[in-house]
Fold:
Amino acid sequence: MSFDDFLSLGPLITLSAAAVISMLLVAIRRNHRITYAFSLLAYLMAMTAIIPAMLFIPHTIPPLLVIDEFSLFNTGLILVSGFIILLLSYNYFEEREERKEEYYLLLLLATTGAMVLVISRHFMSLFLGLEILSISLYGLIAYLRARERSDEAGIKYLILAALSSAFLLFGMALVYAFTGHMDFNGIGDALRQTGHLPVTVMAGFAMMLIGVGFKLGIVPFHMWAPDVYEGAPLPVAAFIATISKGGMLVVLIRFYQDIHGNEYTMLWWVLAIIAVASMFAGNWLALRQENIKRILAYSSIAHMGYILVAFLSGVQTGLEAISFYLVAYFITSIGAFGVLIVMSSSVQDAETVEDYRGMFWRYPWVAVVFTAMLLSLAGIPLTAGFIGKFYIVMAGVNAHMWFLLFMLVINSVIGLYYYIRIIAMMFKLPDTGAGSVIKPALPVAGNITLMLLTALLLGLGIYPTAMMQLIQQMMKMIV
Amino acid sequence: MILLILLFILLGGALLSWIAASRSVLLSRWVALGALLADLVIILQIWIAHPAAGTQWIYSYRASWIPHFGISLHFSMDGLSLLMLVLTFFLGALAVLISWKEINTRVGFYHFNLLFVLAGITGVFLTMDLFLFYFFWEMMLIPMYFLIGIWGHENREYAANKFFIFTQAGGLLMLLSILALYFIHAANANVYTFDYFDLLHTPMQQSTARWLMLGFLVAFLVKLPAVPFHTWLPDAHTEAPTAGSVILAGLLLKTGAYGILRFVIPLFPEASQYYANLCMLLGVIGILYGGMLAYAQTDLKRLIAYTSVSHMGFVLLGAFSFNELAYQGVVVQMIAHGISTGALFIIAGTLYERIHTRNILQMGGLWAGVPMMGSAAMIFVMASLGLPGLGNFVAEFLILIGSWQASRWLTVFATIGLVVATAYSLRIMQKVFFGSYTREEQLPDLNKRELLVVVSLVIVILLLGLYPQPVLNTSQKTEQKTAYVVR
Structure:
């Protein structure tokens, strides 16, 4: 391993080392604050380590890893999101759990897994990253053991994730059996020479799709999402919604580009059907939910469907759109979960729509933040979500995918209903008498974080140019 | 630059009045009123300086916004925009005045929303960039949603949701069309831009143009509203607070008409001609159907809401007649309807404040108690039924002359609409103000503030009816241009 390799992998190495050190720290002395501060430091250092890594791009570490602008951008996105989730976590766990320190350890590990995913270009590293991520998540989801639904969520995720990993492995084996390659480029070249998709590879891709689809939470592999979102601690749910899905999506994009997925119409159609099904299932099922965590789960299913529409466009605008949308979606989701976190009391999470009745009149700033997040999810102007959706529609129009776009439009309208239902609830005049049970914690750190997220959301909504240029430049390298 | 200032005064006023409310509610109201009056003064000065709009574009402002997509902050004002802005600020100021006593909860946030929706409308009337147009188009929805949803009447949430979802659905279809147009233009000229002037005269196949035109048209027909997309309107109008109804009827509906005149016809002239008969038919159906439904209502605000459907049918009929007379009529109709229907909603609102019902069966004989309100209502009811000497007559007369040249049969049916209008308008007077007085309590008549509002409306509707020439002069250039495009 050369010095260049070492610097290029800086963020990854920093974070893995931090995981080990924090384990030792816990062994020496259990102290929530120290572990928390150390984890924050670790994220900051990993973020700083991106800067030297930029000197060497594009840099390949054969055969497993590739560090280019695309992967560094996504590494940065993951690290920043992880940092924000961490900021929101402290008070949440301080109030709830006796043994809080291992949470940070697992969070560091899970983030490491996602970072491996975004730099991988080989089946081995893909699987490695995926498993680091999944196994940490088993622990994270069931972290608050005392709570009613956390075991259910944890076990559900454990069994299904293990099963889907098995499918993924089998799929990889089939692809390898036919092409003789495990690196993405090699597979792509081998398939090019064949000229079509043989049945073995088709079956392999299908099985891999199960594994990938599970992580992304797209129909028909979405069943776990609402239960896990509901049962997991709120910061973990935010992590699953953003970093876990984002990491998988990035590796999927890379794989699809490297094997020239657009040339195989069969693959396109399968993904198109999944996209439409995800949009409809997500939005329809969210309509009648009373629990905001479940609403967010279903809405994230629908959002993955939107992203797939851009994915299928197969034009450069589409990839740019995905990146932009991911950034917007990360900010929005973490923001929405952040609101749930600061509004939750130590006794109970603020999770039903009813808990938010009249919130605007009691906690106007939090309500404004939540409104902004929900409007961004719905894709209303002045927010990042609007520009993101606009970008996706633009990619779709560019690729003449009218049918998919109509589906997207119909779904945006359906989606509006449940977002504005929550907003309407917040702006209702509070009932006199039946006061709310929940006394929100409203920690200072959480509030400041939410402010920053909102500023970012509006900033991207009003002046998206800088981010667009960054993404555009980065995507030139990929295509 | 002056155009940006108009917008910034509204947005700044919105924020200021929200902040001011924490000190004093009264201050918040004055800030809102002040911002609107400032805008009104500016726009009136512009109007006086450019009475005939000799140059086509009075002011333009352009700055790059998202160069990556070819999106710019491009605002331009011609005669049509100018007139619409005068209407916007005038009705906006009145909306603040009539909320003075009606709105007592969350006053700061209320005025924030009120000014924000007006800012969105101002943006719609000014922008010459299609992306920006969509942006403002959506931006005016949310504050309107809050206005209805928070300060409305009993069934407000249902109405607010319905309003929001209907308009959003239409808007998204328009977005698809805008983007398709953008890419077609880029494929032809190899320039990626959303600029209105660049996108004009984009050559494309007729079948494509028809689809794209439909995308725009749906958004505007929903807003207008035309039958069968009108069902959100009665709910939204009925449940909104008075000022909300005034803004909905007076301004928001006009954005639909403005969109047809500014975008649909110039961007897709051939496709517009292809669909002209259909659109005119929808207009006539709206005139008759809206009028008949209005006659059947017992809720005063709902009744007035349906008259809007009927009146906006004339706009649709005129817009697709493709001649200058009809266009002049359309512009006058937009203003006259804004004034007369706004005034009727204000009267309904002041009545509601006094007797707490909107059911016209429970009214009757009110003239004796509130003669000033009665005479004001009389004037606007007469305007609504198209009495000569008042603004609506000029408008409908011009539209009918114009559409006669386009389609005789449809014009005949549209004229029957005037008879229907007479029936429902007189019914308002009969049920509310005539008959025997059954109430025991004494009702207070219009106070000074309300009188100021009503009298200024009366003056405007009279001026519009007796001497509409300034309005016609100002908008003439736009109309000639639109008519010319189609020929």
Remarks:
- Chain B has two domains: 1-267, 270-487.
